[in-house]
Design a protein that fits this description.
The protein has 496 residues and is an alpha/beta fold. Helix content is 45%, strand content 8%. Helix 1 packs parallel to helix 5 and helix 6 runs antiparallel to helix 7. The radius of gyration is 27 Å and the shape is globular.
């Protein structure tokens, strides 16, 4: 008679292997497959937690020289093996249903996860409790413990790649390098591609960031369309994240044709997947955005008009050809000296524990996140920003110790598009700097002391599109007053 444990192992391995194969196509079954796929984020945490707990228990027993495996380890590894099968199967289904494009990270996550499911089943068999002689139990102890430790490392690595799929490339490494004060980037000098651009325009001496803007009279991507993408799409499709294989901050990704079609089909809104998805009813599983408030009719119409006029994106990195009908614009040009200072400032900030990086390999403009700095970023540290103020696009000062005086004194941020002051002690006086930021589109002051009086000064902010002010002293009445004077400005005070 075949032992029930061996039968379990064979059946489980069959499920794991089958998960990597072709899945049947059926209109009737598709909703159920989609549901199964979306169970993956729930199921995947079970084997990770169980294995890490088992490894911790055995490491503790090992240091204390305790004999024999813990009963907890035997049970935990058995449950980890079972749940890993479900996690792997639903993971493959999720990638198939959600249209995840092949990538190195997805391949590593998928196949390493499948391999680890097999390993966990083997370890579950190795660590199972059984009737055996003391000598046999002692001989089995060390290999079982080593396999448990290795399994913990393996599932941790699988989880890391899964995190990169959700949060973007090098998600953990960026924070680690910042915490250690280590320079984790390779932009020690002005990128060669940009230096060659400077040579191509000797008259100005500028290092041009190639910009693609639509013809005169059209919807402006930078001030009208991009803010919508930033607030509603970047969570899954921007800043290194490519849910479903789409990055809305990449012209190449937006115009890439796949089996489903193309996100932006120049001149044809109805043939563009992005328009199709944002106009689907909220009940449709393919509707975008999948959570939160729906895009307004005005926002949808802006995107339609933008695509009809060519779907041209600005801030495209150097070396990318302009789209048909687009013209180069020097509005976001960064001269060679400023590009050099941006590199120096980024290096100094990283030494301070701040995440500071260029927007792209060939774009020296900076994305700065000081929210994780230790000790917390303060007014004295703001001086570090000034040499490259005119090259900073995104500035995150959330959870820092900056004050009204320090923030109000920020000057020269001509390219700043996003400013986060949330979860700080700043108040109305801090917003005195906002009117001097001509390109600022997103301002976050939630959980601060900002009140209705502070909002009044925002009427002079020319490009401001979104203000997040929930859990502050801003009232719905004050928000409505500002919105009535600036119809295109949306203010979230916690009622959306």
């Amino acid at each position: 008679m075949v032992h029930h444990g061996a039968l379990f192992l064979v059946m489980s391995l069959g499920l794991v292997v089958a998960a990597g194969g072709d899945l049947p196509e059926s209109a009737r079954l598709e909703p159920w497959f989609r549901l199964m796929g979306r169970l993956h984020p729930i199921l995947v945490h079970f084997p990770i937690g169980l294995v890490l707990a088992a490894a911790a228990v055995e490491a503790w027993r090992w240091t204390r020289r305790e004999r024999g495996l813990s009963e907890f380890t035997s049970v935990a590894m058995f449950l980890a093996g079972i749940s890993a099968v479900g996690a792997v199967a639903t993971g493959w289904i999720n990638a198939w249903q959600e249209g995840e494009d092949a990538s190195r990270t997805l391949d590593l996550h998928s196949w390493l996860g499948t391999s680890m499911a097999v390993v966990l089943l083997a370890v579950a068999w190795k660590t199972r409790r059984r009737a055996e002689s003391p000598a046999a139990a002692e001989a089995r102890l060390m290999p079982a413990r080593v396999l448990t430790m290795v399994s913990a490392l393996g599932v941790g690595l699988v989880g890391h790649f899964g995190g990169e799929l959700v949060y973007g490339d090098r998600y953990v490494e960026k924070a680690l390098f910042a915490a250690l004060g280590v320079d984790g980037s390779d932009e020690e000098a002005v990128p060669p591609a940009m230096a060659s651009d400077a040579g191509a325009h000797p008259a100005s001496g500028a290092v041009a960031v190639v910009s693609r803007t639509a013809k005169a009279g059209s919807v402006d991507f930078a001030t009208q369309v991009r803010p919508i993408f930033e607030s509603r799409c970047f969570e899954c499709h921007g800043n290194g994240k490519r849910k479903g294989g789409l990055a809305v901050d990449s012209a190449a990704s937006m115009t890439e044709v796949d089996d489903d079609g193309v996100a932006v089909k120049a001149g044809d809104p109805d043939g563009s997947l992005i328009v199709q998805r944002i106009t689907l009813p909220a009940s449709d599983p393919d509707s975008m955005p999948p959570k939160g408030e729906r895009l307004t009719e005005a926002e949808r119409e802006l995107i339609r008009t933008w695509i009809k006029e060519g779907g041209v994106m600005d801030a495209v990195t150097a070396g990318v050809a302009a789209a048909p009908g687009a013209v180069e614009d020097s509005a976001t040009a960064v001269d060679a000296d400023l590009a050099r200072r941006a590199v120096e400032v980024a290096k100094a900030l990283r030494a301070r524990g701040v995440i500071a990086q260029p927007l792209a390999q060939d774009d020296p403009r900076l994305d700065i996140n000081a929210s994780l700095a230790t000790p917390p970023f303060g007014d004295a540290d703001l001086v570090l920003l000034q040499p490259a103020a005119a090259a900073i696009v995104n500035l995150n000062l959330a959870r820092s110790q900056v004050t009204d005086a320090g923030v109000a004194g920020l000057k020269g941020f001509a390219l700043l598009e996003s400013l986060r002051l949330d979860s700080t002690n700043v108040g109305d006086a801090a917003l005195a700097c906002i009117p001097a930021m001509p390109r600022l589109k997103v301002l976050n002051v939630h959980s601060t002391k900002v009140s209705d009086a502070g909002l009044d000064g925002l009427k002079q902010a020319p490009a401001l599109e979104r203000v997040f002010a929930w859990n502050s002293q801003v009232t719905p009445t004050g928000a409505s007053a500002l919105a009535s004077s600036r119809p295109t400005l949306r203010i979230n005070v916690g009622q959306e």
